[in-house]
Automatic annotation (TrEMBL):
One of its GO terms (cellular component) is axonemal dynein complex. One of its GO terms (molecular function) is dynein intermediate chain binding. It comes from Rousettus aegyptiacus. This is Dynein axonemal heavy chain 17. Keywords: Coiled coil. Pfam families: DHC_N1. InterPro entries: DHC, Dynein_heavy_tail. The keyword Secreted does not apply. Residues 43-578 form the Dynein heavy chain tail domain. Residues 579-613 form a coiled coil.
């Protein structure tokens, strides 16, 4: 390849450009100092190294030799290139050497937290100063200015990133304090830049070596900081905006008191709202507030300041009015504190200053009041009296404390006044008040000195005398001991303690010495208090049965305690060794006694753990539940297991107590102790049984608020109405036996713990002989028997239904069909020798019977499902009730079935009768045909006999069907057809009979006349009988034998009824109307009522409803 002259020129120009280049090509945009340093240290150095390598290649060296030997015109230029490249590479290496620390520092700063920038700023500037002082090639003003500009640019970007231009003003309506802290931090960091720069400028000689002349930075700072200055001003303006906003937004929490508090408070709130709206303008802005080149923020801020000045004037007026309402320095100080920095605003401060004089006047009055209190205290302490002091404080320290508090009462407002930095507080009036304050402080100081010196004068004697007293004292009356630490010593210790709290100086040596040993005395007193406490506890709590077991040990202890009562003093040697010895002895005894007593309590607790609750309780412990008899065995197994475990624990603790007392188990004193525990266990068993029985008895009372405890079932079986369990006394499976079994289960728990006292039967035997328990069992038995009797009486109340399950249904039906009613024993007795008159029932009677059973069904349905006897014995009547309802249904169905059968059979019988009668009446009748006449008369008689019944049969049958229908009983379709057709057939049969009857009419006329005369005679006879009945029947209590009278009247009535029936039969035969004879029927009805009345009188003589009026 041929190198032309043009190529050589281009190469030389390129080398020259690299040599002269100290800035990268992208200098048009603002670079950070790191980017600039990176270019200088990497790109430029690399380029120079490459050029140097190129120039030192063998081929280039060969060309250089040729050019030099040929004395070419390019040789001088090439020689300059060599020199320049060598110098440039040297320069680049020098720059890299000195800029490398700066680059590393800047990289660390970029990665560091923003709050750490102050330390980096100083380091960076110091590094730049060192580069200026030591570098041979990078120590020109232009290069330093560029470096500083780029460093400022980097700080500006980091600050903008930290504050976030988009969010910096939004904090005015959010976390304003937090954002202000960030802004203030940024201001302080930027201020640190100026401080470090000024330090560098002033102290530049510090960075130069001693043998080198310092070169200051004489270039104007504006060349390096022009952009930073504008940015710094903008950030400080934003900070001022935030501070103003914070001061005014604090108005939201200001509460103004006084007479005009509400009015002034509303005015403050209104100002707050206006400031809030002003701040909202900045929070909603769309421009970049951290860009100094944008004037939008400056315009808004100028408008903001104008409006804030108006608000300052309004606030000044409000604050002045609030000051006028303050009546104490404290309230004034609080108002000043509450208003805070707002009072420092010039417009507000000008209005508030005159109010400071008022505070001085208030303080002057407070000084006068304090002097009055001081004089009163001095008067109260005259003649050696102790003036009023703080509660629980010793006299000297209390008086000193009073003086200090009075002093503090003045110091507090004085501090508030001195915080006010204003000429008013230095006026002659203020100086006079300060003088009064100093005089009062001097009086209080002298008062404290006098009180203290008086105490100092007698404290030495108190200490010396009382330290020579014995350690303990014994009360000969009670034989108890107490610690003999003098009250005077306690008083000295208390005084010194509180005086130390008050930081009192010059306390006497004796008191200081005593107090220096207060830990020792506290240890002595504390241990002696333990010893005394244990001794007194043992002697006062030991029981009579325990004392013989520890009597010898207590006597030995009394001997040892004599030394502390007579020869050992508080200032003696070996006191603590003696205390330790006695503490161990008494602690051991007290521990054993305490453990023994704890075992006794544990024995009692072991019994109470299982005996606190009754043996049997309601199911799931619910107040409305019955006694849990279903879980009886589970309860017994569980409780018995717990009792056995308690017995094992009790035996173990008794054995442990023998060791604790170090007792001889064969001695009488130990046997007495065991008997004591045995009686305690027996008492616990007694309490348990009483608790269990009381629980049962408490729930076996007639109290509506207490639910029933036991339940029995009333049932209907083959034997009749019975209870389960049985209420018969003496029954092995009866209710009384059940309750006795529960009581025995309770008593049997006493057999599960072996007897502690030797030679005695088990606990149950003793418990069974206890009078109170025997009386409780007897009382419970009487309660149970009383409830059982009440239940049996309730059972008797259902006897009125007994016929339902005792009477035979078919036999009762036959009786009803025969007599139209059920026969009573009185009917059987009355007609014992003659047949009871038959009276077939009517449809109404059937309906009455069915309705009676329906009503009875409703009545029984409404019967209670449960019945409670004596308030605690609940009877479940549902089994009996269901069985009785089923029985009633069977009775009702029997009558319904008979009616349905009656309808069917009546229609079938009538159809058969009409067929036979029509056949007989249609036979031809000839004169002299006697048999034919008799047969026709027989058919006529049968038709006549059936006519009345048959004429009225169809409607009753329809009524019967309708009646059955009302009860839900439907008849077959065939029956309905017959009921529609048979009436017409019957009418035709009657017409046929009338035609035949006309032939025999003359023979009947004579007989009709005779029958009518008999009817008239019987009418007169019944009236006479009615009058006689009213006189002779037992209508009053004066009748000596009412039943005989009733029987006589019943017979008379029956006889009259027989005569009446004969007349009715004849009348029916000859078609004669017979009267109703109502008088006779009335007698019949009344005699029945009299019978029932006299039955009630005889059976219930004590019932007031049957008594004589």
């Amino acid at each position: 390849m041929t190198i032309t002259p043009d190529v050589r020129l281009e190469y030389l120009e390129g080398v020259a450009s690299i040599m002269l280049k100290f800035k990268p090509d992208k200098w048009g945009k603002m670079l950070s100092v790191e980017e600039h340093l990176a270019w200088l240290m990497d790109a430029r150095l690399q380029n120079l190294k490459c050029i140097h390598d190129q120039l030192n290649r063998p081929k280039v060296n060969k060309i250089v030799e040729i050019l030099e030997k040929a004395k070419s015109c390019y040789w001088p230029a090439l020689q300059n290139v060599y020199l320049n490249v060598t110098e440039g590479l040297k320069e680049a290496n020098d720059i890299v050497l000195y800029l490398m620390p700066l680059r590393i520092l800047l990289e660390e700063m970029e990665q560091a937290d923003f709050t750490m920038l102050p330390t980096f700023i100083a380091k960076v500037l110091y590094t730049i100063c060192f580069i200026w002082a030591t570098s041979e090639h990078y120590n020109t003003p232009s290069r330093v200015i560029v470096t500083l500009q780029e460093f400022c640019n980097q700080l500006i970007e980091m600050t903008r990133t930290y504050l976030s231009p988009e969010e910096v003003l939004k904090g005015l309506q959010g976390e304003i304090e937090e954002v202000l802290n960030n802004i203030s931090l940024s201001v302080n960091i930027l201020r640190e830049l100026y401080r470090a720069y000024d330090f560098c400028c002033v102290n530049m000689e510090l960075f130069f070596k001693k043998d080198k002349e310092p070169v200051p930075w004489e270039f104007p700072s504006s060349l390096a900081f022009s952009r930073m200055n504008a940015f710094f001003r903008r950030v400080r303006t934003v900070e001022d905006l935030y501070k103003t906003a914070i001061e005014f937004l604090k108005l939201e929490k200001i509460e103004v008191g006084g007479a005009r508090g509400n009015t002034l408070g509303s005015l403050v709130t209104r100002i707050y709202e206006e400031v809030f709206e002003l701040v909202k303008v900045f929070a909603d802005c769309k421009y970049d507030p951290l860009d100094p080149g944008d004037p939008s923020f400056d315009d808004d801020y100028a408008d903001f300041e104008t409006k804030i000045q108006d608000l300052d004037r309004r606030l000044a007026t409000i604050f002045c009015q609030a000051f006028d309402d303050c009546n104490s320095i404290e309230s004034c100080a609080k108002l000043l504190y509450m208003c805070g920095g707002l009072l420092e605003r010039p417009l507000i401060l000008a209005e508030v200053v005159p109010r400071y004089s008022v505070m001085l006047e208030l303080f002057d009055a407070e000084l006068d009041n304090t002097k009055i209190l001081y004089d009163t205290q001095i008067a109260a302490s005259a003649d050696g009296n102790i003036p009023p002091i703080h509660k629980n404080m010793p006299p000297v320290a209390g008086q000193l404390k009073w003086s200090l508090e009075l002093q503090e009462r003045l110091e507090t407002p004085m501090r508030d006044l001195r915080r006010i930095d204003h000429p008013v507080m230095s006026s002659p009036e203020a100086k006079l008040i300060y003088q009064k304050y100093d005089e009062m402080m001097d009086l209080l100081r002298k008062y404290r000195e006098k009180i203290f010196q008086d105490w100092v004068a007698g404290v030495d004697q108190d200490c010396d005398f009382n330290l020579g007293q014995p350690l303990i004292q014994r009360d000969r009356g009670t034989n108890l001991v107490r610690v003999n630490f003098s009250k005077a010593l306690v008083a000295v210790l208390r005084e010194v303690k509180y005086l130390n709290f008050q930081q009192q100086k010059e306390i006497p040596n004796s008191a200081e010495s005593l107090f220096s040993k207060h830990e020792t005395f506290r240890k002595f007193v504390g241990n002696l208090e333990l010893i005394v406490g244990w001794y007194n506890e043992v002697t006062t709590t030991v029981m009579d049965v325990e004392f013989p077991l520890i009597e010898a040990e207590l006597s030995a202890i009394d001997v040892k305690l004599q030394a502390a009562e007579t020869t050992l003093f508080w200032n003696s040697e070996g006191v603590f060794d003696y205390i330790k010895e006695m503490r161990e002895i008494l602690h051991n005894l007290q521990n054993r006694m305490q453990k023994a007593k704890q075992n006794i309590e544990s024995i009692s607790q072991a019994m109470k753990d299982w005996s606190s609750n009754p043996m049997f309780e309601r199911k799931d412990n619910k107040k409305d539940a019955l006694l849990d008899l279903d879980g009886r065995m589970a309860t017994l197994n569980k409780r018995y297991t717990v009792v056995k475990d308690a017995g094992l624990k009790i035996q173990a603790m008794v054995a442990e107590n023998a060791e604790l007392f170090r007792a001889d188990t064969t001695s009488q004193s130990w046997k007495d102790y065991v008997n004591y525990i045995d009686n305690m266990v027996l008492d616990e068993f007694d309490d348990f049984i009483q608790n269990s029985l009381n629980y049962l008895m408490h729930n076996m009372i007639a109290d509506e608020s207490i639910a029933p405890l036991f339940e029995i079932h009333m049932e209907l079986d083959e034997a009749g109405l019975v209870f389960t369990p049985s209420l018969e006394v003496g029954s092995d499976r009866g209710f009384l036996a059940l309750v006795d079994g529960l009581v025995n289960d309770i008593y049997n728990a006493a057999k599960l713990i072996p007897r502690l006292a030797k030679g005695r039967l088990n606990y149950k035997s003793d418990l069974e002989d206890m009078t109170d328990l025997i009386e409780m069992r007897e009382e419970m038995s009487s309660i149970v028997v009383s409830a059982m009797k009440e239940a049996e009486e309730y059972q008797d109340s259902f006897e009125r239904y007994s016929y339902l399950w005792t009477d035979d249904l078919q036999e009762s039906m036959r009786t009803f069909l025969t007599y139209g009613r059920a026969l009573t024993p009185e009917d059987l007795e009355m007609h014992a020798e003659e047949a009871i008159p038959k009276a077939p029932p009517t449809l109404a009677q059937f309906q009455q019977q069915i309705d009676s059973y329906e009503r009875l069904y409703e009545e029984v349905s409404k019967c209670e499902n449960t019945k409670v006897f004596s308030g605690w014995l609940q009877c479940d009547c549902r089994p009996f009730k269901q069985a009785l309802l089923s029985t009633i249904k069977r009775w009702s169905f029997m009558f319904k079935r008979h009616l349905s059968n009656h309808v069917v059979s009546s229609l079938d019988d009538l159809e058969a009768f009409m067929n036979v009668a029509r056949t007989g009446l249609k036979k031809p009748l000839k004169e002299g045909d006697y048999d034919g006449l008799v047969e026709v008369m027989g058919h006529l008689m049968k038709v006549k006999e059936r006519q009345a019944a048959t004429d009225t049969m169809f409607e009753p049958l329809k009524q019967t069907i309708e009646l059955l229908k009302t009860y839900g009983e439907e008849m077959p379709e065939e029956t309905h057809v017959k009921l529609q057709e048979l009436p017409e057939h019957w009418t035709n049969t009657k017409k046929l009979a009338i035609q035949v009857k006309q032939n025999v009419a003359p023979l009947q006329a004579n007989e009709v006349n005779i029958l009518r005369r008999k009817c008239q005679q019987f009418e007169l006879k019944q009236h006479e009988f009615r009058e006689k009945f009213r006189k002779e029947a037992p209508f009053s209590f004066n009748d000596p034998d009412p039943y005989r009278s009733l029987n006589k009247q019943q017979k008379s009535i029956t006889a009259m009824e027989s005569s009446m029936e004969a007349l009715c039969k004849s009348g029916s035969l000859f078609e004669v109307t017979v009267p109703d004879y109502k008088q006779l029927k009335a007698c019949h009805k009344e005699v029945l009522l009299l019978k029932e009345l006299w039955d009630m009188i005889v059976l219930h003589p004590n019932d007031p409803r049957t008594g004589c009026c």
